[in-house]
Amino acid sequence: MDFNTPRVSCIAIVDFSEDARWLFVTESVTELLGYEPRDVIGQPALEMVHPDEFPAVRKLHYDTIRQDKAAVIAYLRIKHKDPFKGYILCAVSRTVVHNVLVGSISLAIPGPKAFQNASTAQEVVVLTPSAKDFEFRRWGDPSPMPPSPIPNISIFDDEPEDEGGKQNPGVPTPAPQPILSYKPLPSQSFRSALILDRFSIHCPIQYCSNDHLLSTTTVMGRSFFDFVAPRCDAIVRSWIDVIKAWGVNERGQPSEGGFGYGKFILLPKGRDSRNDRIPDAPSSRRREMAGPTKSHAARSQALAGSSMRSRLYSSVVSGGVTSPGEEVVVDAIFSGHSDGVLVILRATSPRIHT
C-alpha cells in the first residue's frame, strides 16, 4: 500500500450542459486531484477527462440526466493538475437533483471498499479498459455482452496470417466514436441535496441545493435533525452513524463508503431537536485528516462491525403522523465522504398539514 496516495473523496456538483461545468466542489479535491476549488468552479468538468474516454463520458452524462438516474458510479480517468501524475483512475458517483448532477470523486482502489461502493450503487459503468476489475453485477442482471457471432474459422492450413500487426485486407477499421452534442436539458425529478457536517453529532446543514423541500435560508447552519420528525429521530440518527462508519478508509480517515437508503418524515418548517441531546464536542476536519484519535477509531470500528452489512430501511412512516405542523414523507439516499455526509431527498407523498 502506498501511503502517499490520497484516500479521500470530494463532493462535486456540475450542471446539465454538455460540458458539465463545475458549480460546486469541496476542499478535498485539492488532495485528490491537485486543484483548488477556485481553479475549477465554472470550468468544463469534461475537459479533465481522458481524451480516449471523452465521447463515452459525454454520452454517459447525457444518459444519466435523460434517464433521471440516482446513486450510480462510473470508473474513468481524470487529469491531475500535476502533469507528472497524468490521468488518475477515479470512481465518480452521481445523482440527478432536479437541474444539477450531485455526486463525488474518489481514487479508484481495488479491494473491499470498492466492492462495497459498487454493491450499494444502483448502477456501475466502467469506461477505462484497464478498470474492468471494478465491474460489479448483481444476480439476475442481464449479460453486458451481446450475442457472439459465429467465428469465421478457416479449415485450411495454408491461409495467410496477419503479419506485423497490420490490418487484414477487407476488414474495416473501427470508426471513432462520435462526440455527442446537445442543447441544455430540462429539469428532472424534484430532488434536493444536502451536505451535512460529518464531524458533529448534530450534523449541521452546510449546503442545500434548492428550495423544493426545505428553504435554504431556513436550514443553513441548523441541525439536520431539526427537520426530522421526532418519531423518526432515533432511526435516522442510527442511519447516519452507519454511513459515517462506512465512510472511513483503511487509515481510519473520513472517506467514501457506498450508499444507504431510507424513508422518513421530513418537517419543512423544522423544530428544536437539541433539547434532549448531549452537547456537541468540538472537532476539526484537519485533525481528523491528520490522524484519528483512539476514541474516533474505536467508535468507527465498532459501528462498522455492527452495521457494515446492513442495508438501510425503515417502516417508521407507517401509521398516523404525530408531529405537529407540515410534514412530508421522503425517500433518502445517504453517502459519506471526506468533507461531509451527502443526503439526497425526494418526496414520496404530498405535504400533510396536521
TrEMBL record:
PROSITE patterns: PAS. It comes from the Eukaryota. Residues 270-289 have a biased composition (Basic and acidic residues). Residues 137-178, 270-304 are annotated as: Disordered. Transmembrane segments: none annotated. Pfam families: PAS_3. Residues 13-68 form the PAS domain. InterPro entries: PAS, PAS-like_dom_sf, PAS_fold_3. This is PAS domain-containing protein. It comes from Paxillus rubicundulus Ve08.2h10. The lineage of its organism: Eukaryota, Fungi, Dikarya, Basidiomycota, Agaricomycotina.
